[in-house]
Write a structure and sequence with these properties.
By secondary structure, the chain is an alpha+beta fold. The protein is built from eleven helices and ten strands. A four-stranded mixed β-sheet has the order 1-4-5-8. The protein has a four-stranded antiparallel β-sheet with strand order 2-3-7-6, with no helix packed on it. It is globular. Bound molecules: flavin-adenine dinucleotide. Flavin-adenine dinucleotide binds next to strand 1 and helix 11.
């Protein structure tokens, strides 16, 4: 097994790296937003996505008939990790999740309407699965989609919808058949975010960013905006989540943070003693870089499994997400342990080690083991789908 890129893949990685260095823009690339840097939520960040589109780097793995280049998904992986490393907006939701799911299950109408706009970086999406009583148990969603003449009438509530405050379209699951078994009564829809029946209420988070509650009052969705078949929504959502757990939880931010930590630890002192001589510091850092190699191996495993095509790989995606997001949090926790009291100085203050970067990152990375399905949910998926244990919810 060769874990290195082929010469062609490496040449692409170098090209992207050089381009990102040349196009560095501190307004767009703010590392202190941690994982939220992936969102194209400001005019500058949307303009950046347009530049990526002009490079021909959006939808590289998509079929040619939908504007793609039909090249291996590893190129999108290389691009996305490089964007994440530079704290730039990423290709996650549009290209990586919604576009790919539409290609597999969307009608020709939806493909024609949305795929070109995704490739041209013209639209941003919000994803709405979670509700107050439906987080880990997403199949318990109760947002009502009632069949009416020519479409569907939606009433109810979503919660934790990141991006709702700036997105153009809502990729949203709803209960279209209250009498069907819970997993079969769900359908997936695309709804314009500016519909007058949608009310968006901000929920500021522990990090610098906000997520949202979204309330639906008589939102009419024409039949054409139902994704795939009525009642199959949960299947599409599960596939989209397999993509999300890999695409939206890139490894590079945690690798970059570890790099900063190691540089700092090599120079820092405590009680006039070099930290680099402290056996506990050496132990923590050695463990981090070793676990990063494991996480890289798990990500390579996802990319290899996805090469086969068809349904996105579930087990590889859950194992990667479980390990990589717990590691990302542990890097921050270990950093604060090494930094002692000074590690608690607020992010952005000169007095803090690395300007308090790990104080901010420690808070920001809390979401990683929750969003896209918690660590416990990933363990349940692995127990059930990989090891054959019985279903427990
Ligand atoms: C900042 C942020 C952004 C988010 N963005 C989005 C978004 O854009 N779109 C969206 O749809 N959702 C989003 N989410 C929601 C996220 O996916 C849910 O929070 C997550 O799925 C957990 O659901 P919950 O919060 O209802 O917790 P619960 O499901 O109530 O879980 C509570 C605890 O119980 C554990 N638990 C639950 N069930 C089991 C079980 N069967 N076995 C073992 N342990 C279990 C969980 O692991 C967790 O520790 C976001 C959340 C946050 C915090």
């Amino acid at each position: 097994m060769d874990f290195d890129f082929t010469p062609e893949e490496q040449a692409f990685a170098d090209e992207v790296e050089n381009w990102l260095v040349e196009n560095h823009d501190p307004v767009v690339m703010d590392p202190t937003r941690e994982n939220f840097t992936q969102l194209a939520d400001t005019p500058e960040r949307r303009a950046f996505m347009k530049k990526l589109a002009a490079q021909g780097w959006l939808g590289m793995s998509w079929p040619k008939e939908y504007g793609g280049q039909e090249i291996e998904g590893v190129y999108e992986y290389i691009l996305n990790e490089a964007l994440a490393k530079h704290s730039a907006p990423q290709i996650g939701k549009g290209v990586g999740i919604i576009g790919k799911t539409l290609i597999r299950h969307g009608s020709e109408f939806l493909k024609k309407e949305f795929l070109p706009k995704i490739l041209n970086a013209e639209i941003e999406f919000a994803v709405g699965y979670s509700e107050p009583q439906a987080g880990s148990d997403a199949a318990n969603m109760q947002l009502k989609a009632e069949k009416v003449e020519g479409g569907w009438l939606m009433n109810g509530q979503k919660i934790w919808t990141t991006s709702a405050h700036f997105a153009d379209w809502y990729w949203v699951g709803a209960r279209s058949d209250p009498d069907a078994p819970k997993h079969s009564g769900i359908s997936l829809f695309l709804v314009p975010m500016n519909d007058k029946g949608l009310e968006i209420v901000s929920l500021p988070t522990i990090g610098k960013d906000t997520t949202n509650q979204v309330f639906f009052t008589d939102v009419f969705v024409p039949d054409e905006y139902l994704v795939g078949h009525e009642g199959n929504g949960f299947q599409y959502i599960s596939e989209a989540l397999d993509l999300e757990r890999f695409t939206m939880f890139t490894l590079s931010p945690s690798t970059e943070r570890a790099r900063l930590l190691i540089e700092w630890a090599k120079e820092a002192t405590r009680d006039d003693q070099p930290l680099k001589d402290d056996p506990n510091v050496r132990r923590l850092i050695s463990r981090i870089v070793t676990d990063q190699a494991v996480a890289k191996g798990l990500s390579t495993r996802f990319v290899c499994a996805a090469r086969k095509g068809g349904k996105p790989p579930t087990i590889e995606s859950s194992q990667y997400k479980l390990f990589a997001t717990q590691l990302s949090q542990r890097v921050c926790k270990d950093a604060l342990d090494m930094q002692g009291a000074a590690g608690q100085i607020h992010e952005g203050q000169d007095e803090g080690p690395i300007r308090g970067r790990f104080e901010g990152a420690y808070r920001a990375t809390v979401v990683e083991t929750i969003g896209g399905g918690s660590s416990e949910v990933q363990k349940n998926i692995i127990a059930r789908r990989y090891l054959g244990f019985p279903k427990n919810f």
